[in-house]
DNA sequence: CTGAAAGCGCTTACAG
DNA sequence: CTGAAAGCGCTTACAG
C-alpha cells in the first residue's frame, strides 16, 4: 500500500501543497469552503502528514520522552509507574503526541539518553521521574534547553517546570491518626534515601513524632522491593520493644510486611497496625485490606503531561502542586492490643 | 544550544556530507582512516543524526510501536506488561531503536492507531499483544503491510510473525500435580474469554480433567482484576461441593482468592490449594507464598523485539516458540485435609 | 575513494 | 485567497 502524501491530496483537491498544509494546520490562507474540501479528501484517502517531514521542517517532533531508571523487577511490580504512564498517555494521545519510552540503568545513562534524544530531535520534551536530592539530570536538561517537567519537587528542580505533591502532610496525618488510636511505638520502612521525596518524608516523620512526644520513632531504609520490605519488617519485629505500628513508603513493601507479621504469628491489626503509602488495588487485595495513603496517580501523570505541552508551546516554566495524598483507613489499623 | 548537523561534522573533517554519512553508517566509500577521523569528530561535537531527516530520506524511523488495550487500572496492577516492556526495551535500545507506547480503549481504536502510525511513518513495525480468537487487528496489519510481530499464537496469527508460549502443557502439569496430591475437585478462574490464550487453556483444562476422571472440573470467567477474582472465588467457595483447589489465570486474581479464603476462615493450603499463573514477585509477597506457573517475561519481550527487528530488516515472517511456563510449588498447595 | 546533486514530504515566507 | 520555491538534514545513486 502506497502511503498518501500531501501532494496526493493537493492533486485531488486541485490546489497547491501549500494550501493543503494551511488547511490541515488551521492556518489562515484558505477559504473555509476549500479547507472543508481538503480535509474531506485527506480523510477519504487516509492521509496523515509524515511525522518525519513535519519534524524536519522545523515543526515539532510531536513526541515526548520518558526515561525510567529502575531495575526491571521493581518496575513491573509497582503499579505506580504504569498508572503514571496511563495518565500521561491519555493526555498526550488526545493531542496526537506520541510517548517514547526508554528504560535506563542509572542517572548517567539517562542523561546520555536525553542528549541523544535532543541531538536526534526525537522528542520535543521530557518528563523526569524519581527526583534526587543532588540530581545531575536537572542541570543537564537545563544546559540542553530541552523542555522538561520534573515529576516531583518543589525543591531541587532548578529552573525546570515541575508538578509535585505534598509528601509531609500525609505523613503527619498518618502519625496523628496512629497516635490517636493509642500507638506510641511507630516505625517507618522508607524507600531509597537518595530520592528527594524520601528525604521530605523522613524529615516530616521525625518532626511529627517529636511533636507527639514519641521517643522511639525509628526509620529503617529499604528499596521498594518486597524482599527488602520483608527483611526490614523482620528486623523491626524482632527488636526489643518492637513497634505496634509500621508505615511503609510503598504498597509492595507493606504487603510483604503483612506477610512477615502473619509468618511470625502476629495478628494484624490487633498486634500490629500497618499503613501503606501508594494506595493501589494491591492494598485491597490482601487480608486484611491495608489502610493506605493514596491519590490519583493517572491524574498526576496527565497533569505533568499537560504542563510539559505548555512548556513546549513556549510558556514559562512553573511549579504546580497536585492533589495531596489522603488516608483511607481499612482493616490493617486498630488500637494496639496492649493499650 | 545549537544542535550539530552532518554539515558541521563534514566541515571540521574537511570532507563532503556524503562521506560523513557513509562513515557513520558503516558503508563502503571512505577509507578507514577517514572513517575513524569522522567518527571521532562526531563524538567530540556530540553529533547524532536527526531521526526525522533520516526517516525522511527513506531510511527507517528507528522506532517500534506498542499499543496496550487494557483499562488503566488493570494495566498498572499486572506486572506482566511492565516486565514485557522492560524486555522489549532492553533489546530495542541496544540497537538504538525507540519504543513508542500508546494506551488504547478497544481493538478498533488500536487499528486506528496502527493506521496513523503507518501513514505518519512514525514506526517501522509494531508488537501486537492480547491476541483474540477473531482478531480484526491481524488482517488490518496485513493490509497495511506494516511489519508486525504477534505476541501470542501460534494460531489466528494470519501471515504475521509471532512468538508464542505453550499454554496447554503448564495447565496439564498443574492439574496432574494437584491430582497427585489427592485433589478431585479442581476449579479454574479464567481470564477474558475473548483472548486466544484463554481458549487454549480452557480446552486443555477440560481435556486433562476428563482424562484424569474428574467430573467436577469447573471454569468460571473473570477479567484479571482483583475484584472479579475475589467474586469468582467467593462464588466457588460458597457452592455445594466446593473445590479443594483453584487455578487462577493470573497472579492478581490468585492473591485476591487467597484473601477471600482467609476471610471465609479457610486455611490455605490445608482446606484449599491455590495456584497462580504468571509467577511474579507478588506471589512471593503474600503468606503463604503462592505456588505458581512462571516463565521469563522480559526474555519473552526481548525475543519478540528481536523477531520484529528481523522482520523489519526484510526477513520472512516466522513463528517461534518461547519457553514454556513451569510450576514452582510453594506454600499454597498441599494434599486436601479431607483426603 | 570523494564531491556535487537530487530527493524524501512537509512548512512557511514571498510574490502574485 | 493561491501558487511557486526554498529549506529542514539526511541518504544515495551518479560522476569524477
TrEMBL record, chains A, B:
CDD domains: HTH_LacI, PBP1_LacI_sugar_binding-like. InterPro entries: HTH_LacI (IPR000843), LacI/GalR-like_sensor (IPR046335), Lambda_DNA-bd_dom_sf (IPR010982), Peripla_BP_I (IPR028082). Keywords: DNA-binding, Transcription, Transcription regulation. SUPFAM superfamilies: lambda repressor-like DNA-binding domains, Periplasmic binding protein-like I. Residues 4-58 form the HTH lacI-type domain. Residues 319-339 are annotated as: Disordered. Gene3D superfamilies: 3.40.50.2300, lambda repressor-like DNA-binding domains. One of its GO terms (molecular function) is transcription cis-regulatory region binding. This is LacI family transcriptional regulator. It comes from Micromonospora rosaria.
Amino acid at each position: 500500500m502506497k502511503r498518501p502524501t500531501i501532494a496526493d491530496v493537493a492533486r485531488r483537491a486541485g490546489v497547491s501543497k501549500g494550501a493543503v498544509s494551511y488547511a490541515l494546520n488551521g492556518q489562515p490562507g484558505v477559504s473555509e469552503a476549500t479547507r472543508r474540501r481538503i480535509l474531506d479528501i485527506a480523510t477519504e484517502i487516509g492521509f496523515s502528514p509524515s511525522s518525519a517531514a513535519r519534524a524536519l521542517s522545523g515543526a515539532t517532533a510531536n513526541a515526548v520522552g520518558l526515561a525510567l531508571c529502575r531495575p526491571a523487577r521493581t518496575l513491573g511490580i509497582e503499579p505506580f509507574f504504569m498508572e503514571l504512564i496511563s495518565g500521561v498517555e491519555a493526555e498526550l494521545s488526545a493531542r496526537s503526541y506520541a510517548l517514547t519510552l526508554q528504560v535506563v540503568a542509572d542517572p548517567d545513562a539517562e542523561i546520555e539518553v536525553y542528549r541523544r534524544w535532543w541531538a536526534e530531535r526525537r522528542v520535543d520534551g521530557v518528563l523526569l521521574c524519581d527526583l534526587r536530592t543532588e540530581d545531575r539530570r536537572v542541570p543537564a536538561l537545563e544546559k540542553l534547553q530541552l523542555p522538561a517537567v520534573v515529576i516531583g519537587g518543589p525543591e531541587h528542580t532548578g529552573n525546570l517546570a515541575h508538578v509535585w505533591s505534598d509528601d509531609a502532610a500525609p505523613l503527619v496525618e498518618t502519625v496523628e491518626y496512629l497516635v490517636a488510636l493509642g500507638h506510641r511505638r511507630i516505625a517507618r520502612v522508607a524507600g531509597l534515601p537518595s530520592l528527594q521525596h524520601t528525604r521530605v518524608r523522613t524529615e516530616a516523620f521525625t518532626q511529627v513524632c517529636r511533636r507527639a512526644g514519641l521517643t522511639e520513632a525509628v526509620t529503617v531504609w529499604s528499596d521498594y522491593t518486597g524482599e527488602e520490605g520483608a527483611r526490614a519488617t523482620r528486623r523491626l519485629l524482632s527488636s526489643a520493644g518492637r513497634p505496634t505500628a509500621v508505615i511503609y513508603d510503598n504498597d509492595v513493601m507493606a504487603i510483604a510486611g503483612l506477610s512477615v507479621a502473619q509468618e511470625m504469628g502476629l495478628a494484624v491489626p490487633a498486634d500490629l497496625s500497618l499503613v501503606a503509602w501508594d494506595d493501589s488495588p494491591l492494598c485491597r487485595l490482601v487480608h486484611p485490606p491495608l489502610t493506605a495513603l493514596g491519590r490519583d496517580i493517572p491524574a498526576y501523570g496527565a497533569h505533568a503531561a499537560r504542563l510539559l505541552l505548555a512548556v513546549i508551546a513556549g510558556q514559562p516554566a512553573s511549579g504546580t502542586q497536585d492533589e495531596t495524598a489522603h488516608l483511607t483507613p481499612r482493616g490493617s489499623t486498630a488500637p494496639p492490643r496492649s493499650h
